[in-house]
Amino acid sequence: MQHHTKIQYESPETIKKFQEEKLKEALAYLNAYSPYYKALFKKEKIDVSQIKTVEDLQNIPTTDKTDLQNRNMDFACVPREKIIDIVTTSGTLGEPVIFGLTENDLQRLAYNERLSFETVGLTQNDIMQLMTTIDRCFMAGLAYFLGAREIGMSICRVGNGIPELQWDTINRIQPTVAMMVPSFACKLIDYAKQENINYKHASLRKLICIGEPLRNLDFSLNTLGEKIASQWDGIRMFSTYASTEMQSSFTECEEGKGGHLQPELIITEFLDANEKPVRPGEAGEVTITTLGVEGMPLLRFKTGDIVVYHTEPCPCGRNTIRLSSVTGRKGQMVKFKGTTLYPPALYDIIDGIPDVVNYVVEVFHNELGTDEILIRVGTNKKSEQLEKHIKDVFRAKIRVAPAIVFESVEYVNALQFPQSKRKSIKFIDRRE
Length: 432
Description:
Elements: H1 12-33, H2 35-43, H3 65-70, E1 85-88, E2 98-101, H4 103-119, E3 127-130, H5 139-151, E4 154-157, H6 163-173, E5 177-180, H7 182-194, E6 206-209, H8 223-231, E7 236-243, E8 248-252, E9 259-260, E10 266-271, E11 283-290, E12 301-310, E13 322-323, E14 328-329, E15 334-336, E16 339-341, H9 343-350, E17 358-365, E18 371-378, H10 384-398, E19 403-407, H11 409-416, E20 427-429
Parallel strand pairs: 3-4, 3-5, 5-6, 6-7, 17-20, 18-19
Antiparallel strand pairs: 1-2, 7-8, 8-9, 9-13, 10-11, 11-12, 12-13, 12-14, 15-16, 17-18
Helix pairs in contact: 1-2, 4-5, 6-7, 7-8
């Protein structure tokens, strides 16, 4: 794969033209090798040679998670013997999907993370502590490892959880950057305070955060981000957004104004509920076309993630599209007492309540078939006053209050980290 690392800094017009040349290659490849897309093009009478611009993509039907689940292996473009790594999606919104990666795909994955790490200013002089899993068929952990190798930095694969082990490793290895779910930073801080660890003077200077939003739509830190920043002086936090299906990531630069697209690796569209493009600054579903993927490339795949995108140049000098934090997932939308909500809005509220140690949000249908919300709150200070305070804060922020049930911190922790899952869980959907 030929690299074009400087394309990020070219004009938007040059970037678009570059991507459209890559798109022609991707469409020709799908038409030649993908059983799923060959059948789609034939059924819809699509001549891929006539799809020449990003706007022309609207003449091709979208693909979604149901298609991947129902016809998983029809998306494979290579024989099984070329697949050297097998990963699965997390199954957040349904049954996990298998993805097979070739040697070229792994090299592409490494290159993507190299670009991601360079975006946050990492070099071969950094040492990374990996606080996410690298096993359980998880693409992300492997990608981080490969990217660190590509850039030449050291990486220490501790895995997720266990604050005691994390701090012991930090003290012995002296990493400069950690890869983690941001709420775990709160657990590290709490443990350090309990054990009198001078965490503010630790070697860590940067946290690259996955899985949970750190910023509001105006790029200011949200409640979770503020909670970490206010307690850990000097730490820099960066969000990175990715998924198994896109095999690429969108990572913030040091300006903290959204995750940058990598033009060599992916084309993005942002669609409304009617699959029409939204304008910059409006919320839309991230819809991706992979570039350069050999094993299981995707065309106009709807991720289910809702974001706001920006096209104006970034102060860092890049002219690529930038994505906000994920404001919600299409399949997780909740209609509660006439109010449309996504789980991140609930997280942001409850993260700001000091006596709440941990929590899980559950959604279910009541006897009328409408959505109800129950929040299981882990706390050491159960009281009617705390329950009233939590509900009052919700009413003030979103006009409605969910049901609150107090649980032990240990019980909620067990709900958040089930043995069968590789990611922490904050949202449990019990709706039919």
